[in-house]
Design a protein that fits this description.
Number of strands of chain B: 31
Strand content of chain B: 25-35%
Helix content of chain B: 25-40%
Number of domains of chain B: 4
Structural class of chain A: alpha+beta
Shape of chain B: globular
Structural class of chain B: alpha+beta
Number of helices of chain A: 13
Radius of gyration of chain A: 19 Å
Bound molecules: flavin-adenine dinucleotide
CATH topology of one domain in chain A: Uridine Diphospho-n-acetylenolpyruvylglucosamine Reductase, domain 3
Shape of chain A: globular
CATH architecture of the largest domain in chain B: 2-Layer Sandwich
Order of helices and strands of chain A: EHEHEHEEHHHHHHHEEEEEEEHHH
Distance between the termini of chain A: 45 Å
Strand order of the largest sheet of chain A: 4-5-8-6-7
CATH class of the largest domain in chain B: Alpha Beta
Helix content of chain A: 25-40%
Largest sheet of chain B: 7 strands, mixed
Distance between the termini of chain B: 74 Å
Oligomer: heterodimer
Number of helices of chain B: 18
CATH architecture of one domain in chain A: 2-Layer Sandwich
CATH topology of the largest domain in chain B: Aldehyde Oxidoreductase, domain 4
């Protein structure tokens, strides 16, 4: 790790933002950042102790008229254990509970979970070339590379897969992201948070310099709406998902009135499966409709020779998530 | 003069055998199959259990000496390259850098990723890391094969320019008997398949390394994470150019080795030793996890092309096959289908090693066996099914080991074989399967190791030997054997081991530690007991022969009796010192220990995810001294075996030659959430080879697991699984779900 200045701030997100605007890197739980710093793929001169900020807004899970607000510094363990979260969406609690290990969950924050970088081994090991770190080509795309955990969508230039467990569920819940930009807090659509990979750019979130995520707001769910989360992990616990899906289904009579389907771990960013939603809406919530949605979800997939199986997994998690969402009460 | 002793070896209740052996005149009579023992063969908690669980146990990693410096190597990220230039000047100018040592100068050739190029010594972690990043090495990168397939390909870059990568290994790599061709032609049933296994790294929780301290009088103390304190000392002394008695090696507790920490010292130990010698400061060098995966050993992969045949009675008639595998840039064996477990009258097997530009394999818990048994049991299973015979029945017909015949039945009953083979795989997305595989091992231990034993008038008992406890329970086993002889509890025995200032002990390899050192401890206990009898006889005015140990009390004529404490009060100030020695192996029941395992799996046929639901492990290791630490070995072996079957895989980029998953979140090891119920059945017996009837256990327990798991998956999904690790991708491919 390269020597850095560790800056504590007395104020809140605004003060943190000022420092970040000047080029400082923000540290929340540090689970992701410190690993990258140790490997020197991140070499910040200044690190702001965002995780030490004692601020109710940042640390609370609060029921508000706009919906359930979860502060950026709330940990995965807190989300997993929260009654308020469970009451709003058991799927979110489940995704938090199944992520990582108990130690990591007690340290990792919601904001960090959204902003964590890819776990691609080539990106994470400094001695490998990586397009995201400035190399001309992504080595994962070359024949002979290790491709089993790489992405199967949008992988033309970077085959990374977004590793986070929470984003697909937040996407399906229609979450809005509260960002502190300069003096103002502003809300953004969840989809607007993500950016496609670019050469030399490490981040997957589209935050301007100085912008800090301060909370996520989950709007109230419409009636007759259920959300479910499904993930495939090679090991039962403490493993990265190979593919995940969160699905929200609103029924009306015998039909699906609205649906939101998000995929995780299969593309450089969390991915909304718009075609699958379209295939489902207006259909009866049953095997035929779910299978059609699953097929639609993988339309446009471009698996590598080493990860064609992931396309099958996507279909399975979409179908299973839809089956559960159609069954589930909340 | 040795004396003749006739006694029964084997398993109480059968099978047994009467043998007559020449027992060394100083040794104690062997116990025999029917012996009734007080503490031997019971559950005795590990002596250091609370130290280990509270964190008080001090591992090499925990040793921090005053004024200690740190050492680490800059490693080549390239598998095959020539060093063009090395510029260490920036690093040398950093404050706190104490030494820089170029290991591969310009012009030097690199033949695996991870090779140390420059060794650096610095005051602290931060400076060390800065220094390593301030060194500029440029390479002419050549590239070259890192997998067995690529290494074998025509025209592949040679690892050793003077020799072909492919090495048929001559006579050593070949086994032949009978006429396999004729037997194949005449067979009632014949099957062929190619089995593939991956490279597995040892992944001990404590990485390799040591702390070297150079004293003013020219002697050295070295704390080392090693499986052989004496071997490490010899190698270290040679490196330093001093007599071995100037070097003291200490391994108080050890965080696992699995074979990777046997024998000579390593590149990083050497680097630390030279810095310690020249700087007159203690120097610590422990590997980081990535380097541990890259350079500190692995189990070679294998590609095993096999054919097997049987006659109309389901008797195996022939096995033939060729194995290719790579042990890295060396020429070690890859491991081939085991040919001793089943009766195979006609045989033609060849083992071919393929050199590649990768870190070298090292002995790994039952070298060659887990991969060999995986393939053997896979082909046996396939043959049984092709012949229409229940796979267990088929094994019973072909297994000549009298004890394994018993074990197969025990395991099958516990697993409910008949019912499950009938009811599984069932219907629906999740299918179940159950199957089995055999274990074999043949280590009896040996050597002429001496154990010293001291008893003081306060009743304290201390056992001393340089042997290390690599986590297997050696310390506890020694205490149990001494306690048995002296009528005391194991916790009353202080065991001082892992220190070369005591008499030499065996290296922990080949599952030989317990049977090599245990009998010496028993003999020492026996001599101590005789001395105690002499003291009591004097006190009681009787003959020593009239003093008996009656459970936990000494008893003499006329109702005389003494507790351990009372007896010890007769010992004078200088204490009582005796020693025992490991004598040559005596007769024996069977030179091969036996074992078998049954696995039950559930396979999600839509995702390809496998959960092992249950394992029944039946093992023999001669007499089991401590059933608790023995079961712990079995459980560990099973976990490592499942991990090998389903998860572990050293993934190398074939173009760049380096490992892509050198961390524990990407190099998957079976975790708690996936660990099944493991039933451990120990068919203890008296092996007859030494006074305690012991044999080795650590390795055979991991031999059959992958085979049993893979066969159970095959049962569950109806497709023969011929490649491990059996990942979701492979299951889906086998089911044809992936086009
Ligand atoms: C072994 C291991 C296993 C794991 N398994 C899983 C898993 O199964 N599922 C899963 O989802 N995750 C998993 N994780 C990842 C873990 O959840 C994330 O690393 C963690 O959530 C990051 O949160 P943090 O607070 O520690 O972030 P930090 O490491 O502090 O920050 C991460 C990045 O986000 C930026 N950042 C943090 N907060 C904000 C904010 N509020 N606004 C703007 N930028 C911000 C930081 O500047 C930094 O670049 C695992 C991690 C490890 C080490």
């Amino acid at each position: 790790m390269k020597a850095f200045r560790y800056v504590r701030v007395s104020g809140g997100a605004g003060d943190v933002g000022k420092l970040v605007r000047k080029g400082a890197t923000l540290k929340a739980g540090g689970c992701d950042l410190l690993d990258r710093m140790k490997e020197r793929i991140a070499e910040p001169a200044d690190v702001v102790a965002f995780g030490e900020v004692q601020n109710e807004y940042l640390r609370a899970i609060a029921a508000t008229p706009d919906g359930l607000r979860i502060g950026a510094l709330v940990t995965l363990a807190e989300i997993a254990a929260s009654k308020k979260v469970a009451a709003h969406s058991a799927a979110l609690a489940e995704a938090a509970r199944r992520a990582a290990s108990p130690q990591v969950r007690h340290r990792a924050t919601l904001g960090g979970n959204l902003c964590q970088h890819t776990r691609c081994g080539y990106y994470r090991i400094a001695t490998f070339p990586c397009w995201r770190r400035g190399a001309d080509v992504c080595p994962v795309l070359v024949d002979g590379a290790v491709q089993d955990t790489a992405g199967v969508f949008d992988n033309g230039e970077c085959a990374s897969a977004h590793p986070a467990s929470l984003p697909p569920v937040l996407g399906a819940l229609g979450a809005r992201v509260v960002v502190r930009a300069r003096k103002e807090r502003e809300e953004r659509a969840f989809e607007a948070l993500w950016r496609q990979p670019a050469k030399g750019v490490h981040e997957d979130v589209a935050l301007a310099p100085g912008e800090v995520i301060v909370a996520v707001v989950l709007p109230p769910l419409p009636a007759r709406t259920n959300v479910a989360y499904e993930a495939v992990r090679q090991r039962a616990a403490f493993d990265w998902a190979l593919a995940s899906c969160a699905a929200r289904v609103t029924r009306d009579g015998g039909k699906v009135k609205a649906a939101s389907i998000w995929l995780g771990s299969v593309a450089p960013t969390p991915r909304r499966a718009v075609a699958a939603e379209k295939a489902l809406v207006g259909k009866a919530p049953g095997a035929a409709g779910f299978a059609a949605a699953a097929d639609a979800a993988v339309a446009g997939a471009s698996p590598l020779p080493g990860n064609t199986y992931k396309v099958e997994l996507v279909k399975v998690v979409v179908r299973r998530a839809l089956e559960r969402a159609a069954r589930r009460e909340r | 003069m040795p004396r003749k002793v006739t006694y029964t070896v084997g398993r109480a209740g059968g099978p047994t055998r009467e043998i007559t052996v020449d027992v060394h005149d100083l040794d104690v009579d062997p116990w025999g199959a029917d012996a009734e023992l007080r503490v031997v063969g019971t559950d005795v908690p590990r002596l250091e259990a609370s130290q280990k669980t509270t964190g008080a146990a001090r591992y090499t990693y925990d040793v921090n000496r005053p004024n200690m410096a740190l050492c680490r190597l800059l490693r080549s990220p390239h598998a095959h390259a020539t060093v063009r230039s090395v510029d260490t000047s920036r690093a040398e100018r950093l404050r706190g850098v104490l030494g820089v040592n170029v290991l591969v100068p310009a012009g030097g050739r690199i033949t695996f990723a991870g090779k140390g190029v420059v060794a650096v010594c610095a005051e602290n972690e931060e400076t060390l890391d800065d220094a390593l990043h301030a060194i500029d090495v440029s390479y002419d990168v050549t590239g070259g094969p890192v997998t067995t397939d690529d290494g074998r390909a025509p025209g592949a870059e040679r690892v050793d320019p003077k020799r072909d990568n492919v090495n048929a290994g001559g006579r050593r790599g070949r086994q032949e008997r009978g006429d396999p061709q004729a037997a194949m032609a005449a067979a009632a049933t014949k099957v062929s398949a190619t089995f593939r296994t991956q490279v597995q790294t040892h992944s001990a929780l404590e990485t390799h390394g040591c702390v070297v301290e150079h004293h003013d009088d020219g002697t050295y103390t070295v704390w080392a994470s090693t499986q052989g304190t004496n071997a490490f000392r010899g190698s270290m002394a040679q490196t330093l150019g001093v007599p071995a008695d100037r070097v003291r090696v200490i391994t108080e507790h050890m965080g696992g080795g699995f074979g990777a920490k046997l024998g000579a010292i390593d590149e990083w130990d050497r680097a630390a030793a030279f810095f310690a010698r020249d700087l007159m400061r203690p120097v610590k060098a422990m590997l980081l996890r990535r380097a541990e995966h890259q350079v500190a050993g692995c189990r070679p992969d294998s590609i095993q092309e096999l054919s097997m045949a049987c006659d109309g009675d389901g008797k195996i008639t022939a096995l033939s096959g060729t194995t290719h595998g790579t042990a890295g840039n060396g020429r070690g064996g890859a491991g081939a289908a085991n040919t001793r477990i089943y009766r195979i009258p006609n045989l033609a097997m060849e083992q071919v090693t393929v050199s590649t530009f990768t870190g070298r394999a090292r002995a790994f818990r039952a070298p060659g066996h887990p991969q060999g048994v995986f393939a053997l049991e896979g082909i046996v299973d396939a043959l049984a099914i092709a012949a229409g015979i229940d796979p267990l029945e088929f094994r019973l017909r072909n297994d000549p080991h009298p004890l394994r015949q018993v074990q197969w039945r025990l395991g099958a009953e516990r697993m409910e074989w008949d019912r499950k083979r009938r009811e599984f795989p069932g219907t629906g997305a999740v299918r179940r399967g159950v199957c089995c595989a055999a274990a074999v091992w043949r280590q009896k231990g040996g050597g002429d190791y001496v154990v010293n034993l001291e008893i003081r008038s306060d009743g304290s008992v201390t056992v001393k030997n340089a042997v290390q406890d690599i986590g297997t329970g050696t310390r506890t086993v020694l205490a149990v054997l001494v306690a048995e002889e002296l009528g005391i509890a194991p916790e009353q025995v202080t065991v001082r081991i892992g220190d070369t200032q005591y008499p030499a002990g065996p290296s922990s390899g080949g599952s030989t530690t317990a049977p090599s050192i245990g009998p010496a401890a028993r003999e020492a206990g026996h001599h101590a007991r005789l001395r105690m009898a002499e003291l009591l006889a004097e006190d009681w005015s009787c003959k020593p022969g009239e003093v008996r140990l009656d459970g936990v009390r000494f008893a003499g004529p006329g109702g005389k009796s003494a507790t351990w404490g009372e007896a010890c009060s007769l010992i004078d100030k200088s204490g009582l010192s005796v020693s025992g020695q490991r004598r040559k192996n005596y007769g024996g029941f069977s030179g091969e220990t036996a074992g078998c395992q049954f696995a039950q799996v559930a396979v999600d046929t839509e995702t390809g995810v496998i959960r092992v639901e249950r394992v029944v492990a039946v093992h023999d290791a001669g007499r089991i001294v401590d059933t608790l630490t023995a079961r712990s070995q079995v459980v560990g072996g099973v976990i490592q075996g499942i991990s090998y079957a389903l998860h572990e895989d050293r993934q190398l980029d074939r173009n760049l030659g380096d490992m892509v998953n050198p961390t524990f979140d990407t190099y998957r090891i079976l975790g708690i959430g996936d660990t099944p119920r493991i039933d451990c059945l120990l068919t203890t017996l008296d092996s007859g080879f030494n006074n305690a009837g012991m044999m080795g256990l650590g390795e055979p327990v991991t031999v059959p697991t992958a085979g049993a798991v893979a066969n159970a998956v095959s049962h569950a999904i109806g497709v023969r699984m011929t490649e491990i690790p059996i990942t979701p991708a492979r299951v889906l491919a086998a089911l044809g779900g992936v086009r």
